[in-house]
Every structure is written in structure tokens, then in C-alpha cells.
């Protein structure tokens, strides 16, 4: 895989590349992602089609380079290292991967060992995102995971031994029966492994999941909101003690180890989404001023057939107007530790929306939900209380942007 800048690349746009791998060994009861169980025989055809879609996307967007590559899923670690290497070569052939680019592989601890991890590293992957979710049997069973605590604990030192110096771990809180003590044990156990990055996800019950069906029947009992808020605050304190700083609502990292690919989503940068059900975004496209978003056909077989015919496999697309883009700017930027820059917001969306933003921020500051100094140009940031009530804060600002001057 080539990783050095080439002639002419300086003028090309920098894009993130997301490759969706929908295959899993087991469907977790909380999962609402586009995944398929028992379709392993389709993997070779799917990998070839994924490489082909990347070529089609590169033709559609014009000269560009890959600033990051992210293999997500599903369980991308079900692919062989040779298949991952082939995909990275396919990307590099048409969207040259910048030197030093972040190349992430989502990994289930139950699907890898030291030899496999070393082979992924040799294939060009330089960052792992480990889907640990819990270190205790109660949590793993409640979440329907297909690995045990021992595999999760072993994954981080194995990754280090395989040559990875950028390792992230995912944990979920708010699962059925979870106590604050169990959550503390998960946090302490994971942080003792010394990860570079920690993603903490508050369990969300989606309608089309097993948990969604249980919720409709009234049989799903989750920790109450006060306890879940206490869990989040405990996580912030534990991460800080472990040397990980919060740079986004759900994400903590050692300085310099923030997930560069995920930052693309939070800053409105362009990214190619390839694979069944994948989404992509081009802020410079569309005819309404707010960019163009597309999403692919979700069925892996139908998606393969479209790509094999040389057709972009889109199921739909949306051109955003400036009003929609303004709300998305608020939603994504407020999630970050840097917050929302009013000057940048006004430059893009104009003085009217900027004035409504400032007035809304002033009201929210009085309630202790945002830290928004009155000096000109100061960023609007969520307070600790505001992070807990983030959805409310965003809805208040969005309503203000849609209202009268």
C-alpha cells in the first residue's frame, strides 16, 4: 500500500473513506445497524464489490485523497487480513491514502488472536477499535455478546504485541440490570489495560431490535435516568484519572489519539461511504447550499448486483438547504469539547441565524446548560449539566434557529 504523497495530490480534496462490512456471527439484541448473520459465503463477492464501489465513487467525486479509512460494521474482523489488504490497495489506487493517515478496523475480541492482529497490522491497519462493551459476564450476557471477559481483556495486550500503538475500546452503559458498581468495575478494568481511546455509549433502545420488542411488551427494565446520568459522570471522572480527556460527548482519548475519522462527521467534512447501507456526504455538492448526503441499498446481495453492473448503488440521496445545515452544525459541533464557533457559524449562515443562536445560547447559559462567554467570538460549549441534557439543548437551539429574528 502506498502512503506517500504523490504529484498533484496537494490540489486534491481530502476525504474520509468508510467501508461497511455487514457480516456478524450473532445479532446483538440492541443492534440496529445494517448487519447480516449467516452470510459468510457472500464475503468474497462482497469484498470484490466493495473495491468496485470505491472506484465508482472516486470517479464520481473527482480528484481526491483519503485522509482516513475506517472499516466498520458489522464485524469487519471477520474478513481475512488478505481481504483487508486488498480493500486498502483498492482505496489507495483511486483515492491515494495520505502518509500518516488513520486506518481503523472495528474488531470483535472473539474474532482475533495475536497472529491475526499482527497480520491486520501488516495489511496496513494502524488503529483498532475493540468492541468490548463490558468486562463482566452479566453485562456480556445482557448485551448478547459472543465473547467472554478473558478474550476482551487479552485483546488490548495482544494488539500492543502485534504492533498497534493506537487502540480504542468501546463500552456500553445502561444495560438491563446494570448497577453503578458493575459500571465502575468495567471502567476500572478497561482503563487498567491502558487504551489510547475510549468510546462510551449509553444504550439506546431502537424499535427494530430485540430490545425494542421487549420494551413494547414491557419486559425490558433498564436503569433509570438518574442512575444513567450518574454512570456518565462516573465515566468522565474515571477517564480523566486514566489520562483520557473528553473531546466529544461519548469519546475520550489521550492527547493526540482522538479518532480523526470520526472528527470528519462532527466537523462537516466530506466522506465516502461504500458498502451495503453505507452513508456518504459531500458538503460542496447539491444545489441548495448545505451539501449532499447519500445512502446505499441496504441488502448486500442487491447492493452487490448494482455495483457489478457498474451502477452507483444508492437507495436515496438528499440535498440539504442552509437551514438544515445550520441545525446539523449545532448538533455536531456542540458534541465536541471545542464547541460551536459563532463567527464560523455567522460566516456560513448569515447574521440572522447567528443572532438567534446567540440569544438562545444566552438563555441556555442562564440555566447552566452551556458555557458561552459574552465576549465576541467565544465558542458555545456544553457544561457538564448540558452534556447530560444535550438533546434538549440542541432542540432548544434548533427551535430558535427556525423562529423569528
Tell me what you see in this structure.
By secondary structure, the chain is an alpha/beta fold. It folds into 2 domains: 257 residues, Aldolase class I (TIM Barrel, Alpha-Beta Barrel), CATH 3.20.20; 63 residues, no CATH class. The protein is built from 15 helices and 16 strands. The strands form 4 sheets. Strands 9-10-8-7-6-5-4-1-11 form a 9-stranded mixed sheet, sandwiched between helices. Strands 12-13-14 form a 3-stranded antiparallel sheet. Strands 2-3 form a two-stranded parallel ribbon.
How would the blueprint of this fold be written?
Layout: E1 13-21, E2 23-24, E3 36-37, H1 43-61, E4 64-73, H2 81-94, E5 97-107, H3 114-123, E6 127-133, H4 137-142, H5 149-161, E7 167-173, H6 180-191, E8 197-202, H7 210-217, H8 225-241, E9 245-248, E10 251-253, H9 260-267, E11 271-274, E12 279-282, E13 289-296, H10 300-308, E14 314-321, H11 322-333, H12 342-349, H13 351-366, E15 370-371, E16 381-382, H14 384-388, H15 390-401
Parallel strand pairs: 1-4, 1-11, 2-3, 4-5, 5-6, 6-7, 7-8
Antiparallel strand pairs: 8-10, 9-10, 12-13, 13-14, 15-16
Amino acid at each position: 500500500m502506498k502512503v506517500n504523497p504523490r504529484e498533484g495530490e496537494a490540489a486534491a480534496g481530502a476525504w474520509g473513506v468508510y467501508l461497511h462490512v455487514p457480516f456478524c456471527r450473532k445479532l446483538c439484541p440492541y443492534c440496529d445497524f445494517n448487519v447480516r448473520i449467516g452470510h459468510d459465503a457472500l464475503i468474497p463477492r462482497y469484498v470484490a464489490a466493495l473495491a468496485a464501489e470505491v472506484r465508482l465513487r472516486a470517479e464520481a467525486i473527482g480528484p481526491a485523497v483519503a485522509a482516513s479509512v475506517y472499516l466498520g460494521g458489522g464485524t469487519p474482523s471477520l474478513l481475512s487480513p488478505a481481504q483487508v489488504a486488498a480493500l486498502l490497495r483498492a482505496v489507495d489506487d483511486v483515492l491515494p491514502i495520505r502518509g500518516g493517515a488513520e486506518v481503523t478496523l472495528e474488531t470483535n475480541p472473539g474474532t482475533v488472536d495475536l497472529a491475526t492482529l499482527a497480520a491486520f497490522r501488516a495489511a496496513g491497519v494502524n488503529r483498532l477499535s475493540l468492541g468490548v462493551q463490558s468486562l463482566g459476564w452479566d453485562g456480556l450476557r445482557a448485551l448478547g455478546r459472543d465473547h467472554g471477559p478473558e478474550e476482551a481483556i487479552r485483546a488490548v495486550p495482544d494488539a500492543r504485541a502485534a504492533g498497534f500503538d493506537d487502540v480504542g475500546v468501546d463500552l456500553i452503559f445502561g444495560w438491563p440490570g446494570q448497577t453503578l458498581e458493575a459500571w465502575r468495575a468495567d471502567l476500572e478494568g478497561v482503563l487498567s489495560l491502558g487504551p489510547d481511546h475510549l468510546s462510551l455509549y449509553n444504550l439506546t433502545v431502537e424499535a427494530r431490535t430485540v430490545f425494542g420488542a421487549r420494551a413494547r411488551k414491557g419486559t425490558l427494565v433498564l436503569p433509570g435516568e438518574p442512575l444513567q446520568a450518574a454512570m456518565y459522570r462516573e465515566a468522565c471522572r474515571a477517564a480523566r484519572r486514566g489520562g483520557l480527556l473528553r473531546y466529544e460527548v461519548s469519546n475520550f482519548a489521550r492527547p493526540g489519539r482522538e479518532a480523526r475519522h470520526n472528527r470528519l462527521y462532527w466537523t462537516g467534512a466530506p466522506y465516502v461511504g461504500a458498502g451495503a447501507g453505507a452513508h456518504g456526504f459531500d458538503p460542496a455538492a447539491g444545489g441548495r447550499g448545505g451539501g449532499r448526503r447519500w445512502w446505499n441499498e441496504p441488502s448486500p446481495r442487491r447492493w452487490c448486483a448494482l455495483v457489478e453492473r457498474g451502477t452507483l448503488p444508492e437507495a436515496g440521496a438528499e440535498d440539504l438547504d442552509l437551514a438544515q445545515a445550520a441545525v446539523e452544525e449545532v448538533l455536531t459541533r456542540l458534541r465536541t469539547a471545542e464547541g460551536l464557533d459563532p463567527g464560523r457559524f455567522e460566516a456560513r449562515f448569515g447574521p440572522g441565524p447567528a443572532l438567534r443562536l446567540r440569544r438562545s445560547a444566552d438563555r441556555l447559559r442562564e440555566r447552566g446548560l452551556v458555557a458561552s462567554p459574552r465576549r465576541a467570538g467565544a465558542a458555545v460549549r456544553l457544561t457538564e449539566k448540558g452534556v447530560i441534557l444535550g438533546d434538549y439543548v440542541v432542540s432548544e437551539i434548533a427551535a430558535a434557529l427556525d423562529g423569528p429574528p
